[in-house]
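Re: Re: ligand-bound prediction request (bumping)

Still looking for help on this. To restate: I need the protein modeled with uracil bound, output as structure tokens. Inputs repeated here so nobody has to scroll up.
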Amino acid sequence: MGKAEDLAALEQKIAVDDSLPLQEANLVFGEGNPEAEVIFIGEAPGFYEDREGRPFVGRAGQLLDKLIVENGWRREDVYISNIVKRRPPDNRDPFPKEIEAYKPYLAEQIRIIDPKVIAPLGRFSMNYFLPKAKISKDQGKIFLLKNKLVMPIYHPAAALRSSGVMEELRLSFQKLKRAVERYSELIENREQQEKEEETKKEAQSLF
Ligand code: URA
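Reply:
Sorry for the wait, this slipped through. Here it is.
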């Protein structure tokens, strides 16, 4: 089976899993290119996403689309999803047990797509991947997680509330494009660094 079929099968599986919380809301599985090099991950669907069954279609989504196009991409080139796949009531933050319940599905979605870069949108999603990171300090930075680059960026909804955040989000988007283009080099550099650290540790333990 190809990635598109694997994703469709996963969507079917999640749709009928009635052990998952937030059953009263619609499923927003995620959408985009199954071969995407970059995956954007938000927190959970909001009102418009629940209504349409698609991620990031409200005001924040329109800004996300604009930034994607400014990077020379199209929305259908990338993949967009959320940690929790159903809307929490009144858009409250998802509870830890809701995140835990949806976790295997997100992990499988990422495994199937196998992107080069994961871009968590906002603090909440960032802390899912990087529990110790701080959004103002770490957004726009590149982290290595397994064989993937993780670059947390501001949530577009935050940029709609602050022109300073908007400016930083635009800069991070430019950096994101360069990270995707330079993926192999960045991975190699990190692997080289890790090897050197290992060698140093081994040498230190010898004398
Ligand atoms: N905010 C999110 O985090 N996800 C969406 O899908 C929409 C808004």
